[in-house]
Amino acid sequence: MTPRKLWQTVSRFRWRSSVATVVANIRLYGWAATMRKMRFRVAVFLNARYRKSTWGQGQETFENVSQSGQLFGRPTILIVGALDLPQCKKYRVSQKVEYFQSIGWDCHYCHYNDAQRTVSYLQISTALIFYRVPSCAQFTEYLGEAARLGVKTFYDIDDPIFNEAVYGENKNLEHITPHERAHLLASAEDYRGAMKSVDALILSTSYLQRLAQEDFGGRTYLWKNLVDSATLSIVRNLESDRVERDIGRVVIGYASGSRAHDEDFKTVAKALADVLNLYEHVELQVIGYVVMPPELEPFKDRINTRPFTGYVKYFEALSRIDINIVPLVEDRFNACKSAIRYLEASLCRVPTVAASVGQFSEIIDDGQDGHLAKTNEDWISALDKLIGSRDLRIKMGDSANEKVMAYHTFSSPDVIERELMEQFTLSNE
């Protein structure tokens, strides 16, 4: 350690250990939690790279943690989750990190398989959030360490993967092998076991929250999927491209997100075929993966597909469509889904026609800032109106954009329950 770095470390330690902040920390967290935080700071001050702590971490992890900006009295949130799916990570992990940091809290995240990083960050955390982590050896280890440290635990989930009956209603599971389907449904018990072990649950939609209350009771809190600053930045950079649209054609867009939406797409296939047959200037743009139903085979020359290649490219494609569609099978599984596809299209001022299922029916004011559809006739009628009027598409897209910006950003009211935020500041000690 250089003299300059040593002086910076000493100064930082002296500042953070002031009498005022220690007293405030004791009042907020109690003696035990305060002493735990002080032990960590002392370890850093004595140069943690040359010693092993009780949790067995070394130089690199300690130094990264020590530079996190953690202050006495400031909540520090640790999110441990399955980070393999980009959309899930974006909306349930990255957004939380951004939100906590925006209000002056510290927040870190780790993949649940990264035990060294997880246990290290856990030492300075005031709350632990699990995201889509099944009951497993790592989960048990983290839960035990959190209990030892007096850290409150939460479980965040955005799909009913914990309820085998509801999960089994997902028609898209019919396109995987019986063995794979049986394995997925059997895994519900692992998620249930994990969710039963924490202090409170965090859910993404009101329907999913009610389902969790029926299954687990206890404390459940709502944290809706929102529009984050990274997404807003992408969209703002693309706004100038809207003038380049070809007004001589109308593009209907469908974003599947994954390979598991074939049955959902089938529900709108006949309506799309009727519309494409009626209007020769209408095209279909598919973003993602979907098996094209036979009804649409005659129109394959007007159907374009592109894979999902990241959010910048995704929003580039989304900003160039004229009508966004969100078809869904009407079942309890889809009723749990959040209206992400509506939020994203609305940011690009693109009007949406969505199945009247779950959160879509809660958010969309039918005929004002979007259309809701239940029957084939509903789909045809809504698409017909929007195809026939460019002014209507612009008006509805603008209305949707205003709604999303007013009610579905971090600054919007009631998107995160106040009681949940209070829970994050409480210790289990």
Write the layout of secondary structure elements.
Layout: H1 3-16, H2 19-29, H3 31-45, H4 59-66, E1 76-81, H5 86-102, E2 106-111, H6 115-122, E3 127-131, H7 137-149, E4 152-157, H8 164-167, H9 178-186, H10 188-196, E5 200-203, H11 206-216, E6 220-222, H12 229-238, E7 250-255, H13 262-266, H14 269-278, E8 282-287, E9 303-306, H15 311-318, E10 323-326, H16 332-335, H17 340-347, E11 352-355, H18 359-363, E12 371-373, H19 376-388, H20 390-407, H21 418-424
Parallel strand pairs: 1-2, 1-3, 3-4, 4-5, 5-6, 7-8, 7-10, 8-9, 10-11, 11-12
Helix pairs in contact: 2-3, 6-7, 12-15, 14-19, 17-20
Give structural notes.
The structure is a single chain. With 429 residues, the protein is an alpha/beta fold. The chain has 21 helices and 12 strands. The protein has helices at residues 3-16, 19-29, 31-45, 59-66, 86-102, 115-122, 137-149, 164-167, 178-186, 188-196, 206-216, 229-238, 262-266, 269-278, 311-318, 332-335, 340-347, 359-363, 376-388, 390-407, 418-424, and strands spanning 76-81, 106-111, 127-131, 152-157, 200-203, 220-222, 250-255, 282-287, 303-306, 323-326, 352-355, 371-373. The strands form 2 sheets. The protein has a 6-stranded parallel β-sheet, with helices on both faces. A 6-stranded parallel β-sheet has the order 9-8-7-10-11-12, sandwiched between helices. The longest helix is centred in the C-terminal third of the chain and has 18 residues, at 390-407. The protein is globular. The model is unreliable at 13-18 and 39-72 (pLDDT under 50).
